[in-house]
Specification:
Pfam families: GGDEF, MASE1. The chain is about 65% helix and about 10% strand. The longest helix is centred in the middle third of the chain and has 36 residues, at about 280-315. The chain is α+β, with helices and mostly antiparallel strands.
Amino acid sequence: MTLTPQSLARYSLFIALWLLVWRLSVLMEYQPHASLWFPPAGLSFAAFLLLGWRALLPVFIASFLSTLWMYWLDSNIVSIQQQMTSAIWFGFAHIIAYGFGGTLCGYFLQREQRQNFPKQIYIFLLFGGATTLLATFSGIIALHLADPQLQINFMTTWLPWWIGDLAGTFVMAPIFIIVIMKIWPQLTDWTGIYQQTKAPKVTSKNQFVVKLLVLQLLLAVVMIADNSLANPALAFAVFFLSLPQMWIVYSESSWRAIVSLALTSLAIALWVGLLGMSDSAITYQFALCVIAANAYFGMAVPNLAQQNQVLYQQNITDGLTGIITRQHFIECTEKVLKRQILNRQPVSLLIFDLDHFKTINDTYGHSIGDEALVSAAQAIKKLIREGDLVGRFGGDEFLVLLPNQNLSEAEATAQRLKRDLPTIEVNGLQLPLTASFGVIEFQAHEQVQQALIRADDALRRAKHLGRNKVATAP
């Protein structure tokens, strides 16, 4: 790692930020060395996630200095050697856990490249949970190695330690990703989080503030009630804050949802520290993690819905011509038939294919042939009525559904399309486009497949008549 004056300044700024965040978390302790969450865990996780092993030295220095600072704040009579030993052990324990977890998380997230946001959320939560659990165990081991005489009750220590680190990581890591990208602007925004800060706002700032105030008011009611009334079960009411938080998630941008989540978590930590609610601390720690996870999966829902919509459009749309596929045409036809039968209205069907299409491909090439198909499909789409339906049957064959037209009216429509089709210009094609049409009217209780067979028979008769013809089937 080459240290230029600029990079040295950035690493120094990061270390100062880490220590500041650590100090603020200390101020929110509800009892000595017990805070509802540990935001520096989120900063370390975000640093390794974005910077990889380049974050090793600054994170180690920050955790080393925080340990010495803790001894100074406690005014414990401990030798300098003991303080240094503890700081080194804690520093190594911290960077080993967050180094491996954060770097691996960054690797797997970067592979997704924002193409699968729900999967990215899952990866972030999975690695966040595993990393903080590893950090808990390594931290407890480090405490024992630094001072073998220290009596540590593992069973009562590991869970609040882990959930505190987990809450700090789940809630604050996205915020710290933005901060780190501000410090290192040359980093690529492969997470997409920084880009969210520039996304258009869904609602006005005043509306967002109102939602935040409602959320904070509900939080205050829960916290005061829990502290005032002798009922431990009241603490579980904090989980209902997922509802107003999800209101913000679904009605605001992702960035505002992340900010709301961070502010709510900060408020919960402040309330617990201010009121000294140690008996309910573990409940609120779990609440922070659950509310954060719900919010992130809530952010993924619009992305998932958009992906499903894209897949649906790909499934029903012909990739070449842009009109609907045969299968979707049949599905839509069945729905129209049911409606028309109830209304006792006629429905007709056209099937046509381009004349001498094989000759066009052989003479001008398949690219010109594809262009002819696209031009024909788009032209027919413009020439039919708004309520009509056009789809690709396969190859150079197309289908047109004509609701509210009987056989004679449908034949007139086919004649009009046959007349207008040669006026279409196709780049590189020196021949006019013509087509042969088969026309039928749906009979009572006739299935779509049966109608297609009759229409195809009519199309064959049109070809036998010399092509560029219209034939009907009774």
